[in-house]
Amino acid sequence: SQQGEEDPQALSIQEGENATMNCSYKTSINNLQWYRQNSGRGLVHLILIRSNEREKHSGRLRVTLDTSKKSSSLLITASRAADTASYFCATDYYNQGGKLIFGQGTELSVKP
Amino acid sequence: DAGVIQSPRHEVTEMGQEVTLRCKPISGHDYLFWYRQTMMRGLELLIYFNNNVPIDDSGMPEDRFSAKMPNASFSTLKIQPSEPRDSAVYFCASSLFSDQETQYFGPGTRLLVL
User: Fold this and answer.
1) Among A1, B33, B73, B83, which one is most buried in terms of CB atoms within 10 A?
2) Between chains, do B45 and A99 touch, taking CB under 8 Å as contact?
3) Chain A nearest CA to B47, separation (Å)
4) What is the spatial distance between Cα A36 and Cα A109, in angstroms, rounded to a whole number?
5) pLDDT tens digits, chain A, 112 residues: what are they?
């Protein structure tokens, strides 16, 4: 299976703290994406980082990509209770025809 | 735009019955994906279409599952006969060719097979 691994599986922090989630993948990629899923809802695209990029920002989100280690991290700064959700990384591998392989997700709980 | 629309939102059926899940992608999107999400297996891609043509159905678990896309604005995922292990949340997603990496997900159909 080419499914990547995410850690931690669960993370509980206080409002205002930063949250960091990590994702490792198996082989060469075109890009890596992060999605958020609120309980009982569909996934929402957050950010995409291409294989030739090392860091990307979007509002309070910062994503890094280390292709030598085949890993990515998502940092949410100054977290809010509304950030409580599951976060998934999804990889677009070279040989997968554009389809995404999702990780198992990190469940983030931000306490007010 | 209303986003990706799925129906029904919830479905409870008995083992052996036929189940049909429906999806309306975002207008103008060229790609349509069907996923299944369970606690044990996470989010799995079942099949995806490009311009109404199935491209990769390697994730379809078995012959009991079939998917069609008769036109650009409608797709169905059918399970016949259904089994308790098919209980899951089924998501449909669509994307635009020029931005095919970003997928837009529907709210999902929560299926329970008794």
Assistant:
1) B33
2) yes
3) 10
4) 13
5) 666 788 999 999 999 999 999 999 988 888 999 999 999 899 999 999 999 999 999 999 999 999 999 999 999 999 999 999 999 999 988 777 678 889 999 999 999 9
